[in-house]
Specification:
Layout (H helix, E strand, L loop, with lengths): L6 H16 L11 H8 L9 E6 L8 H9 L10 E8 L2 E7 L11 H6 L2 E7 L8 H5 L5 E3 L5 E3 L9 H5 L6 E2 L6 E2 L5 H4 L6 H5 L5 E5 L6 H8 L15 E4 L7
Parallel strand pairs: 1-10
Antiparallel strand pairs: 1-9, 2-3, 2-4, 5-6, 7-8
């Protein structure tokens, strides 16, 4: 696991940002931004690829293997999650929602009344949307959150000061404060694997191919074909964040 920046340096940068915000009313703020370009320069080129993540709701069976694989592959601290699966059960009285959000654990069965009155049930995988117009990138005061080649939205651990602005700005609730590194953390679409030509861990373990990952610009790629079909939905489209996670068969109650 990558090491967090030293406490002294992180504290200094945090105080610098807080001080800048405090004087916002009296003059312009000059915030740090060079780290984004430095971090991006060290990453491999995407060679024209623009990645997207497809989730086929009709194929998700709520097995939770994706949650387990993510936690193992990325050393996710206990009590934190990078990806999870929400279960929606619609009844006449409303929609019952619970989640598979802990590695190795599964939610208890829904109340008997909910099961008896169920009209439909759906499992909805959630993960970072790697938005093209990412709110988290916009609010990061030191450029630690940036968009890498291929469309990955990443966090530079050398420059993140743990201010939490990006966590608050994310409309999908996918970011969290890592208690071990003490910086912002989230799903990276297993960037370290993709850079080696591999798929994200959650994709490789999905037994029904409910999760797919690929180049949306490639007409020969199944993900590219789905993207071109324009027969998909995104979460919270009203946010205009241009999500790169494309859902198939997403119930309107979830959107």
């Amino acid at each position: 696991m990558e090491q967090a920046p030293s406490t002294g340096r992180r504290t200094f940068l945090h105080e610098l940002v807080v001080g800048a915000v405090a004087v916002a009313a009296t003059g312009p703020i000059v915030l740090l931004s060079s780290s984004r370009s430095r971090a991006a320069a060290d990453l491999p080129k995407a060679n024209g690829k623009e990645y997207a993540f497809v989730v086929d709701v009709s194929k998700c069976i709520g097995c939770g293997y994706c949650v387990d694989a993510c936690a193992i592959e990325n050393n996710v601290p206990k009590g934190s999650i990078r990806t999870w699966v929400e279960r929606y059960i619609a009844t006449d009285e409303g929609v019952h929602v619970d989640a598979i959000d802990k590695a190795g654990e599964r939610p208890a069965p829904p109340p008997a009344r909910v099961q008896q009155d169920a009209k439909w049930e759906a499992f909805i995988p959630k993960l970072c949307n790697h938005c093209e117009n990412a709110p988290c990138v916009q609010v990061c005061p030191v450029g630690a959150t940036f968009t890498a080649p291929g469309g990955f939205v990443l966090v530079d651990p050398e420059h993140c000061i743990g201010c939490g602005y990006c966590i608050q700005a994310c409309p999908y609730g996918v970011r969290f404060f890592n208690p071990e590194t003490r910086i912002a953390d989230k799903c990276t679409w297993c960037y370290h694997r993709v850079a080696k030509g591999l798929e994200p861990a959650c994709v490789t373990v999905c037994p029904t191919q409910a999760r797919r990952f690929g180049d949306r610009n490639d007409p020969a790629d199944p993900v590219g074909q789905i993207y071109k079909s324009d027969n998909w939905q995104t979460l919270k489209p009203e946010m205009h964040s241009d999500s790169r996670v494309l859902y198939l068969g997403l119930p309107r109650e979830v959107i």
